[in-house]
Specification:
Blueprint lengths: L5 E4 L11 H13 L4 E4 L13 E4 L2 E4 L1 H12 L9 H27 L2 H11 L5 H22 L6 H19 L12 H14 L6 H7 L2 H14 L2
Parallel strand pairs: 1-2
Antiparallel strand pairs: 1-3, 3-4
Helix pairs in contact: 1-2, 1-7, 3-5, 3-6, 3-7, 6-8, 7-9
The chain binds glutathione (GSH).
Pfam family, one: GST_C_6
InterPro entries: FAX/IsoI-like, Glutathione-S-Trfase_C_sf, Glutathione_S-Trfase, Metaxin_GST, Mito_Protein_Transport_Metaxin, Thioredoxin-like_fold, Thioredoxin-like_sf
Protein name: Glutathione S-transferase
Length: 235
């Protein structure tokens, strides 16, 4: 018999089970599919097989990366919340996921970590699982590491106003794709809704001033979408 599926994620705040959009994406997808598991909160992502959160462990095997994990679990448990999608919608689902995971996410990282006022608050959230003296030492080191990641990705070479414009454009694109629909692909939720919710709610619910957060506030259909998803999967 298979051992319990363990899902490792970073700590939560602001009423969210985790402040990591990738961890929340997986958590939301697990809620959507009803796969039984044990959630384990970790203070740092370093024990994961890729040094990032989330990761899972079952039968002595670890697997990292939310997208690989979801593909693995869908096959292992024979579930597919995307079964109703047309080929064109499947293509669009990949494009939306890339927009969020590979672009919009990095605007949020910039706003949380590089904006001084936001960082004063966020450091105690993101390092909240560590003892206070360790937090004080690790905070600046972690911040320098994230700055390097941002530059390596490419987002970090832009100025704050440019990053805001990039994020605003992503948010408006998502709003245009959703339009009047309840879910990104019509009347039934799919994995894309978990991807979008996890990222948007992490910007929307965080008490940080940012242009991207303001952009979400100016798209009533996305705000309604966040509330709809939360009401259905996080009542
Ligand atoms: N592609 C990965 C990205 C995971 C990721 O970047 N997780 C962040 C937390 S939101 C992390 O663990 N960062 C730690 C680090 O980069 O040192 C996924 O989809 O799971």
């Amino acid at each position: 018999m298979a051992s319990t599926l363990k899902v490792y994620h970073l700590p939560g705040a602001w009423g969210l089970p985790t402040v990591s959009p990738f961890c929340l994406k997986l958590d939301a997808w697990l809620r959507m599919t009803g796969i039984e598991h044990e959630s384990v909160t970790v203070a740092t992502p370093f024990a994961g097989p890729k040094g990032k959160a989330p990761w899972i462990e079952q039968d002595g095997q670890k697997l990292g990366d939310s997208t690989f994990i979801i593909a693995h679990l869908a096959e292992r448990f024979g579930v597919d919340p995307d079964a109703h999608l047309t080929p064109a919608q499947r293509g669009l689902a990949v494009a939306i996921q890339r927009l969020i995971d590979e672009n919009l996410y990095w605007t949020m990282v910039h706003d949380r970590w590089m904006n001084d006022a936001n960082w004063q608050q966020f450091r105690d959230v993101v390092l909240g699982g560590l003892a206070v003296p360790l937090r004080r030492v690790l905070g600046p080191i972690a911040r320098r590491g994230v700055k390097k990641q941002l530059e390596g990705h490419g987002m970090g070479i832009h100025g704050a106003a440019e990053i805001a414009a990039i994020g605003r454009r992503d948010v408006n694109a998502l709003s245009d794709i959703l339009g009047e629909q309840d879910w990104f692909f019509g009347a039934e939720p799919s994995s894309t809704d978990a991807v979008v919710y996890a990222q948007l709610v992490n910007i929307w619910r965080a008490p940080f001033e940012s242009e991207v957060r303001r952009a979400i506030g100016q798209t009533p259909n996305l705000v309604a979408f966040i509330d709809r998803f939360a009401a259905r999967y996080y009542p």
